[in-house]
Fold this sequence. Notes:
Helix content: 40-55%
CATH topology of the largest domain: TIM Barrel
Strand order of the largest sheet: 1-9-8-6-5-4-3-2
Largest sheet: 8 strands, parallel
Number of strands: 11
Number of domains: 2
Radius of gyration: 19 Å
Distance between the termini: 22 Å
Amino acid sequence: MKNTICELFNIKYPIIQGGMVWCSGWKLATAVSNAGGLGLIGAGSMHPETLREHIQKTKANTTKPYGVNVPLLYPELDEIIKIIIDEKVPIVFTSAGSPKKWTPTLKEAGITVVHVVSSSVFASKCEQAGVDAIVAEGFEAGGHNGREETTTLTLIPSVRKNTTLPLIAAGGIATGSAMFAALSLGADGVQIGTRFAVSEESSAHDNFKQLITKLGEGQTQLSLKKLAPVRLIKNEFFNTVYQKELEGASAEELKLLLGKGRAKKGIFEGDLVEGELEIGQIASIINHIKPVSVIMDEIISEYTHLLDTINKSGKYNF
Length: 318
């Protein structure tokens, strides 16, 4: 495939793997890049030297482009950015903050910069900040989310009208047909998190992966809106949070309940009761743990089939 995103990142397919905490280590990033997409290392769950190790292992195991996802609320951000520049990381995705401060620094180092947004207003601000592309993420997505609760199908055409930058759709995308829909709405590529979180190469605990394959519709919900909205699986920890929110708990009370390391406990260590289990709505259609190579093949095959069907008949034929 050839389009704006493929040309920008020098990749075969316009598919970017989400930089998910506790899932997106060097094995997953390498596998996605080697399969023709863009693999991302998730810096949000890594101390600086751990990130350096994952970058070096990625470089040792692929000659393809790769990137790092950096939440801008990271407490050791100066050191993280220095490591990224020192290690000559080619692409950086930033999120959870304003891109104004770090985009010039990264671009001066020759790095392609992409920022994640949840509204067309923020997309316009990204263009002003000088980023190279935008990820527009609908509220179906796992992990941290926009307060606006705008769905991907609504968000993509809205952002497309407000910016000329290359646009990547995210949130609820796990199949070739979803990729086709996103590109039809004006996106140039897609970012996929949940499906790759359940891959063999994901660094998430097997307990977490197995649970995801058993989820049905409605078994995730946006929560912790007084802190930073996050989509969680409805486990015992979620139920506790939900009850506290119904009772009007303050942000400070919710912070105390959340504590430290709650996502690590759930996603990386496999505590399905007390862990914070972040995943997207699309988990309900994922029933098997597969290698990244198989996942990529399935997505591209389904997308290509739809495209060929329309080219031949001029209409959808499922």
